[in-house]
Every structure is written in C-alpha cells, then in structure tokens.
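Same chain as my last thread, 402 residues:
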Amino acid sequence: MAQQVKRAFKYRFHPTDEQAAELSRTFGCVRLVYNKALEERTRAWYGEQRRISYVQSSAALTEWKKAEELAFLAEVSSVPLQQALRHLQTAFGNFFAKRAKYPRYKSRKKSRASAEYTRSGFKWRDGRLTLAKMSAPLDIRWSRPLPEGAVPTTVTVSRDAAGRWFVSLLCEDMITPAPATDAAVGLDAGITSLVTLSSGEKIANPRHERRDRKRLAKAQREFSRKAKGSNNQEKARRQVARVHARITDRRRDFLHKLTTRLVRENQTVVIEDLTVRNLLRNGKLARAISDAAWADLRMMLEYKCAWYGRELVVIDRWFPSSKLCGACGTVREKLPLNVREWTCDCGAVHDRDVNAARNILAAGLAASACGDGVRPQRESSRTGRSSVKQEAQRVTAGVPCL
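reply #2:
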C-alpha cells in the first residue's frame, strides 16, 4: 500500500543579476538575525538564567527593523527571517534535550548561504516559482519532474561555495513499496572495497577524492599564492570549491545508485553501527574513511528502507564480525588489519571481509527473529564479569532531503 511522505526535490537554477543581488542580501540578513537572536539568548541565559522563547525573539525582530542601523532588514522578505528564528528555536530545543551541542554562530565564510520560504513567501503557478520581493520567476533547470499535482509547501534557496545556486522544493509524494522478496544481505563496510556483501560480491571503492587529488592540490597551491583579500584569491578559492563540489557530487551519485540497488533486491539489509567520528581519529586512515562516506551510506539505507517497506537491522559496533569463524563459531583474540585472509583451527579458510559480511547477516537475522542479541559473552577487562549487550536494532524512520 502506497504511503504519503514529505520529499524534497533539489534543482539548479540561474538567477538574474537582480535576483542574485536580492538573494545575497537575504542570505546576509538571515545570518544576521540568527546570530543576533543567538547573542540575545546567550546573554539572557548566562547573565540572568532566563530563557527567551521564539515569540520573544520574533517581537525583538520587529524592534530591530525599526532601528536606524538595522532598517535594511525590512527591505527583504520577512519569511526567511522568521524561519531563521524558528531554526534557532529548534537548535535550542535539541540542546536542552541533550540531542545536540550549544548552537553556534553562523559564519559568512564557512556557513551555508541559504534562506527558507514558506507558502506565504513564494508563488507557485503553472510550474513556475516566484519568490517574495521578485517580479520574475526563477530560471530552474528541471532535471527531473515533480510528482504529478505536487505543490511545494516549503522552498529553500541556497548557494554553495562554488557559486552554484540551488532550490529545494518540499512536496508531498506517494511512495509505493517495492515487491516483497525473501532475499537478505549483510554489509561489511571497508576502504579497499567500499562494501562487501554476504553473497561474496565486493563493491569496489571509487575513491573519488583520491582520483581528483592532483587537481585539488594544484588548485590549493594556486589559492595559497594569491594576495590575501584580492579578486584573484577569490577566483582561486572558487576553483578549489569547484573541485570539492565535483568530488561530492560523484560520491553522492554513486551512493544513491548503490543503496537503491541494495534496497530493491533485498527485503532485509543488515549493517554495522560504526562510529565514524571515532574512526576519524586514526590519522593514517582518516582521509580514506572520509572519502568512503559510510555515514551517508547508512543515512540513505535508512530512509530508503523506510520508504520501500524494507527492514534495516543495525548490529552493535562491538560484534566481532571479522574475528568470528562462520563455520565453528570460534572468536580469534587478535586479527590485525593487514590480515585479509585467515584460517581457523577448524580448518575453514576465510576471506576477512566476506566472513564479516556473512556473520553480520546471521546476527541480524537472529536478532530480527528473536529480538535478542547474539554476540558471544566476553570477560570485561575491568570487572571480570561477563557483559552482553543488545546488538541489533530496527531502523524504521528517516525523512530525507535530497
């Protein structure tokens, strides 16, 4: 049965000079309002132990527009400014709920330039989008059609570091679940092979960053040679950003194709709960791990499984998938990373990655069937007591922004 979901469709567009100037002013005002509201909230909290609500911030915004030095805030659409206050309210809500760190100020150079418009801030007519304070619609390049009859509820306009303009349209869409199948697959993430399947197939790692490393290094050298603050430095900075954008786009395209294939072919997908942030502390492998983008791979699997009626099972990070013999169940004490093939005492010869993928699949299916962990008990080094953790969890939610 088809389900209704909120889905964002992202397109490139080419603004006129007037539209680019208006959007640039809007981006700057959004950043200013966000930072000023954050400053007021921080001062109230640390100075008076007093919380400021969204309603109070909205009233303060009205007063800021009346001030002579901030009168330019009234020249742009008020909708993105109000949305900036709502985003700040959400950030503080996550902070007080201990789901995130304390909100940070938006930087003109490092933060993404964007503005969000709700229904009152744009006009959608006959497939043409016109934003508030603009007389002409945006010149959008429709790389794919919107769902039939879809009407955007929220529009987000952004500009990346390479100077490219994008518009993201949030719409209601009907997703039809994929046909049911009995197939299941376990995934072992790696660097040499991006993903090894329990079927024995190895998906080669494209290494997008390494393939463009010479081009990136050349662009960065050119950037370092330019005079600080000059127009030539800005041109060189944009060239560096273009190389990074090329790498990011190719990586995202590859991951989308891979995850879509895995979700279509399998009813159950089992993965490991990798802590990428901790793995990045390895100085020798940090660059390769970042290029592999395991976090993006998991995120795509989560929402695609939720969309298409598949089950995603996540195995505990401490499950000894590589050191566990899939034939007899023996767990080796040590298995260095440079050992890619090993022989168990029972005589079974294992490819490290294939064995890990098969063990991940077996653990995931067991946990899915009985709802209990299957990781062997181990002795704690500090207490001497056995410890068994629940090692699998179902992932059922995830709303993406493509």
